[in-house]
Amino acid sequence: PDGGDSHRVREFDLDDRAFVAGGFDIPAAKTRLAWLDDDTVLVATETDADSLTTSSYPRQARALRRGQSLDDAPIVAEVPRDHVAIFVGSDIRPDAETTDRAVIVDAIDFFNSTMSFLDLDDIRAVDGSLFTEPTKWADALNQVDAPTDVEVGFERDLVLFRPQSTWKSTTTEVAAGGLAIADIDAVKEGEITPRVIFTPDAHTSLQSFTFTRDYLVLELLADVQSKLTVLDLGNDFAESTLPGVPANHMVGLGAVDKFDSATANDFWMVSTGFLTPSTLSYGTLGPSDEAAGTNSDEPTTEVIKSAPAMFDAEGLSVEQHFATSADGTKIPYFQIGADDLVLDGDNPTLLDGYGGFEVSRTPGYSPVVGIGWLSRSTAGQKSDEAAGATTAGDSTNTLPAGRGGVYVLANIRGGGEYGPEWHTSAMRENRMRCYEDHSAVARDLIARGVTSPKTLACAGGSNGGLLVGNMLTQYPELFGAVSCGVPLLDMARYTKLSAGYSWKAEYGDPDVAEDWAFIKEFSPYHLIEDRQDYPPVLFWTATSDDRVGPVQARKMAARMQAQGIENVWFFEDTEGGHSAASDNEQTAFTRALSYRFMWNALTGE
Question: Does 203 participate in catalysis according to the annotation?
């Protein structure tokens, strides 16, 4: 309700376009819900203090029938309090050949979990209703016998496996970041013999995948460039490449309807780039139904519509470069700026990054970045050839003027751009690598003449706030401004605040002496020194942030100000949650505040 992670869940009728009177209605909490049938849902939510983990997420799953109160719904599964959460899901299919399933995940920590599933037919009464007695669920549940760092999914009668580290089963070795499959009946019997269908290399990682009826499309990154590989399910997973992916763009696919014979192999594709608004295309991978008359033997793609441009990208271009980190690792980054950029070290430059939780930062269209930082100051003018004059400020015919700066996105370790090992190489005791990577990109920009310390800013939020907090405290000489949003900063206490306990697998446990020995080396609050050469810094947060919380930003700003450090600024909104913005107006204000602060610090304007 206030932009936080807690949310109310209500049943909505798509035909009537109205909430269902007396329908399912779950009070505000960090709820997960899955339909089992028209009158039964599987729900993980908060009912009392005992229903939550130490990380503040649900730890109990209940089978809730229509008209039943939450308190009366039986608990069909629960996890220990010191685990992160219990997650629920369902695999409901419209075809009669596929068995509907319920799925329960025990998230042991952020990167390790166990998955259990049951066929709904195994808990179905004679009249077709579902049993909700815990004993019947316990008898029907099948736990997938795979290592806890293997992600598990389902597709019809296949079980899919994506290991985070090399998995050596009794018959097969599946590389970290690879993809393997097994028959679900064998999985039920505990006899998993995975077949590998994708193995990554040093430059390529699997980001996602999409099934149609007869094909599997792998959405890959090759040096942070999108690539689509098609596997033919009916031809022993024969491999081909789906053409038409533009450079420096990110693409995502979704099946149209694999259970409709007319569209069984059709897909939607969305592509976007730093300077290109999202474009929706419709394509087919091969014949679905000859009667449809729209499918061919070869893949085809047709552009349906593109979103409107929100800033003037004329004269701007995208480049990809590689910096060298402290240990010699090549770190890719995208640079967006003027075609005729003068490499005189005087270009106001914004360095963005994240570097955590295997999150990949990829090309994408951002009107906020475009208007707030990139487009040139003359972009708000248009040429009126008929009148032989130039006019400005007509918002119906022109695009907003921008500042004409340079924007840089760094793909540092800790992210998922090169798969799980790119992430794990910067976890816990190796955390410093992502900060070394980010500073290496900053140095490369300076060495290439793109910018200089006095004209280089960095910005980040959440884990990205921790990133720029370390730029502030460990590399102050590289930056002229820092914008630090909804951040982790006090790594001695982060596990005791909001959802912080769930991130111990990423950062380490500060209550364990061996862990604190390396955590304190990247805890910005504990790295503040009695010095005056810190760059200007803005800390911004929200009172309603129930993931990280506002406390760490508050105390960091207060400590720096108490030490007499100049140009330390702080802003806190009451609403907005972990994004510090619950609507577009708030988003515009928060981003404008951040960009205005950085631009002023770099240019004096």
Answer: no
> What's the rounded Cα separation, in Å, for the pair 516 and 299?
54
Q: Which of 51, 462, 483, 523 is catalytic?
A: 462
Domains detected in the chain: 7-243 (2.130.10.120), 332-379+395-603 (3.40.50.1820)
Residue 312 corresponds to which tokens in the numbers above?
Answer: 């003037």
Output the average pLDDT for the chain: 92
Helical residues (DSSP H) of 351-399, grouped into ranges = 367-369
Residue ranges of alpha helices (H) inside 360-425 are 367-369, 420-424
CB neighbour list of residue 583: distance below 8 Å, 6 or more residues apart: none
Report DSSP state, residue 455: G
pLDDT at position 293 over 60: no
Cβ neighbours of 16 (radius 10 Å): 8
- pLDDT tens for 168-191 read 988 899 999 999 999 999 999 888
Query: Choosing from 83, 249, 438, 578, which is the catalytic residue?
Result: 578
42-53 tens-digit pLDDT: 999 999 999 999
Instruction: State residue 575's pLDDT score.
Output: 84
Contact 494, 524 (CB under 8 A): no
DSSP 88: E
**Residue 62 to residue 70: CA distance in whole angstroms:** 8
Tokens 């240019």 correspond to what residue? 603
**Dihedral, 407, 208, 95, 299 alpha carbons, nearest 10:** 80
What are the φ/ψ torsions at residue 116 (nearest 5 degrees)?
A: -125, 150
d(CA 541, CA 210): 37
Facing residues of 496 across strands? none
* Alpha carbons 292 and 284: distance in angstroms, whole number: 12
Dist. CA 558–CA 159, nearest whole Å: 52
Is 249 among the catalytic positions? no
Q: Work out the number of other CB atoms within 10 angstroms of the CB of residue 255.
A: 20
23 and 40 in contact (C-beta within 8 Å)? Answer: no
**Chain-centre distance of CA 391, in angstroms?**
42
Give burial (CB, 10 Å; 0-12/13-18/19+) of 359: middle
Q: Strands 456-461, 349-352: parallel, antiparallel or unpaired by DSSP?
A: parallel
DSSP-derived 3-state class of residue 104: strand
pLDDT at site 381? 42
